[in-house]
Design goal:
One of its GO terms (molecular function) is oxidoreductase activity. The protein is of the alpha/beta class. The protein has helices at about 15-25, 40-45, 65-75, 105-130, 155-175, 205-215, and strands at about 5-10, 30-35, 55-60, 85, 135-140, 180-185, 225, 230. The chain has an eight-stranded mixed β-sheet, with helices on both faces. Helix 1 (about 15-25) packs across helix 6 (about 205-215), helix 3 runs parallel beside helix 4 and helix 4 (about 105-130) runs parallel beside helix 5. The structure holds NADPH dihydro-nicotinamide-adenine-dinucleotide phosphate. NADPH dihydro-nicotinamide-adenine-dinucleotide phosphate (NDP) binds next to helix 1.
């Protein structure tokens, strides 16, 4: 087992996840870049500026139970340590327009990845997280679209799944508070990625909104929902 602080980021081969990996490396973490396709993950890792051996590319499809199990077993072997888990993997569909016309298959798929993905990966990684001391965090990359209080009629699959992800945050935060593990949801804002499209903020800024929840002190908030360090109404 490594004696260095170690982070895991899901959906990390592009977009916000990749920028989160870079910012974790900048903070000195050994970082696991988890991705569905390790070829694309290795190519993404080559764009980073790590010291040698500090990025570990691992296969993980958060929608596939067997993949989650295999991923967790691999982590237990090496690096054998997790201090920070960033549940970033997510999907959004251009066809996801309104609840009356929603394709239930699409809603189910979004739920499986965006909500259950974070639930399953958190469960699988928890035994490793529990072994560590101070500085342990689970950060769920949510969206303002999952805020019930400001929810309109748009993007039902995405909104339902992100609201459920926020419930995952609340549930784990309550259970893990006695262990000192902080669990928060963050919204990265509108970010210029494949998902966000053009016009959003730079990806490094969206990632910084995620890192805020990693950088929290051990007596910092848990079970909250934040954008750029400010609370977002549930
Ligand atoms: P991108 O579409 O650019 O990247 C999404 C990432 O998630 C990719 O690495 C993708 O992998 C991965 N992914 C998708 N499905 C799975 C799966 N089943 N298993 C593992 N990985 C998967 O999105 P962003 O970087 O923009 O978004 C990252 C997170 O931020 C998401 O949770 C999103 O909902 C959230 N967010 C984004 C906003 C924005 O404006 N961009 C706004 C608010 C929230 P692959 O390359 O294999 O497809």
């Amino acid at each position: 087992m490594t004696d260095e602080r170690t982070a895991v980021v899901t959906g990390a081969n592009r977009g916000i996840g990749l920028a989160v990996v870079q910012q974790l490396l900048d903070r000195g973490f050994v970082t696991v870049l988890a991705c569905r396709d390790t070829g694309r993950g290795e190519a993404a890792a080559a764009t980073l500026t790590p010291a040698p051996g500090r990025v570990l590319v691992r296969r993980l499809d958060v929608g596939d139970d067997d993949s989650v199990r295999a991923f967790a077993a691999g982590l237990a072997d090496a690096p054998g340590r997790v201090d920070v888990l960033v549940n970033n993997a997510g999907i959004h569909y251009d066809t996801d327009q309104d609840p009356a016309g929603a394709d239930v298959g699409v809603v189910r798929e979004a739920f499986e990845v965006n909500a259950l993905g974070a639930l399953k990966v958190s469960q699988a990684v928890l035994p490793l997280l529990r072994r560590q001391g101070p500085g342990r965090r689970i950060v769920n990359v949510s969206s303002g679209a999952g805020s019930l209080s400001s929810m309109g009629a748009g993007t039902p699959a995405y909104a339902i799944s992100k609201a459920a992800l926020n419930a995952v945050t609340r549930l784990f935060a309550a259970q893990l508070a006695p262990d000192g593990i902080l669990v928060n949801s963050v919204c990265p804002g509108w970010v210029a990625t494949d998902m966000g499209g053009r016009g959003g903020r730079p990806v490094a800024e969206g990632a910084a909104s995620v890192l805020w929840a990693v950088d929290l002190p051990d007596d910092g908030p848990t079970g909250g929902f934040f954008r750029d360090g400010r609370p977002v109404p549930w």
